[in-house]
Amino acid sequence: MRPVANSSKWILGLGVLFLGWEIAGQQEWLGKGLPPISAIVTYALEPRSYELLMRSAAVTATNAIWGFIIGSMIGWSIACSGQIWPALKKGLDTLSTFVNAIPLIALGPLLIVTVGEQLTPMTTASLAVFFTVFVAVLGGFERLPSVHHDVIHTYGVNRWRALILVLFPNALPSFIDGLKLGTSAAVLGAILGEWFGAPAGLGVLIVSSMQNFQITLLWSAAFLGTAMSAAGFFILVIVQQKLLPRFGW
Amino acid sequence: MAADEKGTSSIVIEEVRKRFELTNGQSIEAVGHVDLEIAGGEFIALIGPSGCGKSTLLRMLAGLEQPSHGRISIAGETPEECIKHHDLGIAMQEHGLMPWLTAKKNVALPFRLAGLPVDEDRVDELLNLVGLQDFAEALPKQLSGGMKQRISIARSLVLRPRVLILDEPFGALDAVTRRLMNNELQRIWSQKPTTTILVTHSVEEAIFLADRVCLMSPRPGRLALIEPIELERPRKLETMQEQSFLNLLAKLTAALDEVCMPEVAT
Ligand SMILES: Nc1ncnc2c1ncn2[C@@H]1O[C@H](COP(=O)(O)OP(=O)(O)OP(=O)(O)O)[C@@H](O)[C@H]1O
Ligand SMILES: [Mg+2]
Fold first, then answer.
1. Mutate which of B17, B18, B22, B28 to test ligand 1's pocket (most atoms within 8 Å of Cβ)?
2. Domain assignment of residue A131, yes or no
3. Interface contact B102, partner A, CB < 8 A
4. Residue A50 belongs to what domain range?
5. A33 CB-contact burial (10 Å; exposed 0-12 / middle 13-18 / buried 19+)
6. Is A29 part of a structural domain of the chain?
7. Considering the entire predicted model, what is its pTM?
């Protein structure tokens, strides 16, 4: 019964939020910048804007998904490499921290001239994801109790087998936690990458509607971005609930 | 690989000391100076006060720690080389079972870690031996503390090691199960004599199982007394009531009290 109770709480919470928003918008409490939610929905459902929004959302989703996949694979591989080649571990950790510390805003223009505007959103999305996943997997490795290290040591001299049989299964829950955080990072990274001059996407829509003062379009695009992050997050929650018990967690 | 045909291994511990460097620049001496020769197939029980360095000595035997001084050789090899041939079985104070693997898969894990094909019959045989065949598919979280410990012992035996290192493996068991397991361990050991070093806090258990009982003094641990146990084998639970057993028990208990609290005993 818990999930039902939980989802009804969610719905109630969102309902209260939207109701407050609607009233605030109607009364223009926050000026023209916050239109009532009904106006945003009506606008978004008009055929012309609907089509534009969906087209942009599809582009952003594609960028975010690819960025998410590539970024998680990179984060995961870097964390694993450090276990297999301990000599590299320190260097890889430092490099990852360093890359993560460069603001994406600063990288954007550089990426435009290197990988091109088409690939920039995907790249910024991967960059936003990889570190979260890297830290999560590394944390999972490091949380292995010392007796388990002893077991590995006495039965397995092979680092690959130790990684596959013990370290990675042990890190699986925190890997999935990292992926959960990675979903919103991917959407954010993709939108940010699109700002720098990508041909299409929610990021492009946000920039242009900002410049043309199309408040309802701006809000619709922001909504879609949020919905995308939330959807990704919930997909991973389901994966977590279905997958982890199957692996004995 | 014909694991059955593996022989036994003698162990030589020569002038072994262990000093741990602490982060604040200080260091503590965990193991003082230990010299011991263990014959192939011999069963040694190690007793001593808490913190005297018993686990540390075992960890050095298992290649998990390096001695700061001295040498350990197992059948002429270093512990590391011994590990490479999968000749070492360990069960520690903490069971160290993988929470995501079933009991059966935990027992089979050494095969997979060693890159050997899993011998299902051997795994089943060991589950039977520790009386947990009905729990083969249970996850560790579904087992009691004692059951987990038994799985951990089964795991330590699965590769038919030539040297068995047991650190307080029965500590979590109730008295009855413990005696039962003692009996089983003796049976396993006499079926295939394996050089065994068992750390225990129970003097009775030590006498019941061992060929020699070694008593360690408080940290830095040294061997204060080595007592040969010449009770006939197989020892039965009734053996524990015999006068010769009780005499040994009295003697070793007194010796243990004396090393632990010399001012009270004298
Ligand atoms: N990795 C380590 N670093 C620093 N000190 C350690 C380390 N391992 C053990 N020691 C110290 O060495 C001493 C001996 O510890 P050890 O675990 O060998 O004792 P023990 O005889 O097994 O005790 P118990 O019977 O309680 O298990 C203790 O003082 C402990 O604090
Ligand atoms: Mg100990």
1. B28
2. yes
3. yes
4. 35-247
5. exposed
6. no
7. 0.84
Structure tokens at A83: 């276990």
* Ligand 1 in reach of B24 Cβ (< 6 A): no
- Tell me which residues of chain B have a pLDDT lower than 70: 1-7, 263-266
In whole angstroms, what separates CA A55 from the centre of its chain? 20
- Chain B residue numbers with beta carbons less than 8 Å from the beta carbon of A170 are 98, 100
CATH number of residue A51's parent domain: 1.10.3720.10
Ligand 2 centroid distance, CA of B61 (Å):
14
- Judged by a CB distance cut-off of 8 A, whether residue A165 touches chain B is yes
Are B87 and A157 within 8 A, CB to CB?
Answer: no
Tokens of A246: 């199957």
Name the minimum distance, in Å, from the CA of B114 to any CA of chain A.
5
DSSP, collapsed to helix, strand or coil, labels residue A119 as coil
Q: How far apart are CA A248 and CA A245, in angstroms?
A: 5
Number of domains in chain A: 1
Helix (H, G, I), strand (E, B) or coil at B176: helix
B139 contacts on A by Cβ (under 8 Å)? 248
Rounded-to-integer distance, Cα B88 and Cα A124, Å: 50
- Whether ipTM exceeds 0.90: no
Is-contact B161 B128, C-beta < 8 A? no
* Six-digit token string for B219: 């940290």
Residue nearest to atom 11 of ligand 1 (CA): B30
In a domain? residue A18: no
The predicted model gives A204-218 an average pLDDT of 90
Nearest CA in chain B to A152: B113
Say whether pLDDT at A30 is over 90.
no
Domain annotation covers residue A3: no
Q: Which atom of ligand 1 is nearest to the CA of B58?
A: 18
Give me ligand 1 centre to Cα B14, in Å: 20
Residues A114-152 have pLDDT tens digits of: 898 889 999 999 999 999 999 999 999 999 999 999 999
CB pairs under 8 A between A and B: 66
Pocket test for ligand 1, best of B20, B214, B222 (most atoms within 8 A of CB): B20
Give tens-digit pLDDT for A154-197.
987 788 999 999 999 999 999 999 999 999 999 999 999 998 88
Q: What is the pLDDT of residues B150-170, one digit of tens each?
A: 999 999 999 999 999 999 998
